[in-house]
Amino acid sequence: MIRGRGGILGPDLSNVGGEQTLSAIRDSLTKTKPQIPRGYQPVEAVTTDGRRLTGIAKNQDNFSLQLLDNQNRLEMFTRDELRDVIYQKQSLMPSDFETTLTSAELQDLLAFLSRQVIQGAERSEESDEEQP
Q1: Which of 22, 70, 87, 117 could form an S-S bond across to 128 if both were Cys, CB 3.0 to 4.6 Å?
Q2: What is the residue range of 105's domain?
Q3: pLDDT tens digits for 62-71?
Q4: CA–CA gap between residue 105 and residue 43 (Å, rounded)
Q5: 95 & 66 share domain
Q6: Is there a single domain that holds both residue 113 and residue 95?
């Protein structure tokens, strides 16, 4: 989502250029195992009756799990309703943009994302000197 537009399955990117360096943005688009942002852990939940659901774990604790599926439906379970919860190691976000986009398209995407800055917000790391 950027500035309130887009889905809620992934993090808000409205200030990604203010929070991440250009190198970090590039890595998230091209690394085979990008870091999974806090609050966006992909899971597969198996209910006691054998139903399998995949999505993002939300508001989980020792007693319950809320799962946001790819249709933006929030499913709520107590832990005793679940046979298994499998935490995925791979982010739901594609990470092969260097092969699915042309070099120019990837540069355009990097330029677009790096310019997503909310005025007054500061970057948490030193900014890169490189240009997209």
Answers
A1: 22
A2: 1-36+91-119
A3: 999 999 988 8
A4: 31
A5: no
A6: yes
